[in-house]
Amino acid sequence: MDKLILTDGDVIDHAQIKSDLLEWIGGENLRELGFDPWSAMQFSLALAEEGIPLVEVPQTVRNLSEAMKETESLVYAGRFHHSNHPVMNWMMSNVTVKPDKNDNIFPNKSTPEAKIDGPVAMFTAMSRMLVNGGEPEPDLSEHLVSVGIRSL
């Protein structure tokens, strides 16, 4: 797979992204696809029409704090591995975290132009795994794929 797939033009090509997504998940045992509903109504409806089981996961402290803490714990324990993808590495380097008074955390951008979509997708997937009672296996990456959770 390419490092980054560009679409033609200056706007997001939702039809191309939908086509790529359907090809990517084809044949997988996809239980659900978590998504942030903010500005995603049209795209989520198009995916639902294809029979993709969608679950809204708003980007809130409530949905992402525990997932971020679990991910951090697994990284430090040496139990979370990824493919060392350069785009994901770059996006992770853009994530900043500032705990609130209750020690909740939330992913923020280091600068307004920084991109953190990949890490947020990963935290969303982790959030859904925790909600569904999933226990991380020795290799969390393999477990996420085995239960139908993949990040774009």
From TrEMBL:
It holds the Pfam family TerL_nuclease. Residues 7-130 form the Terminase large subunit-like endonuclease domain. GO terms for molecular function: endonuclease activity. InterPro entries: TerL_nuclease, Terminase_largesu-like. This is Putative phage terminase, large subunit. It comes from Escherichia coli.
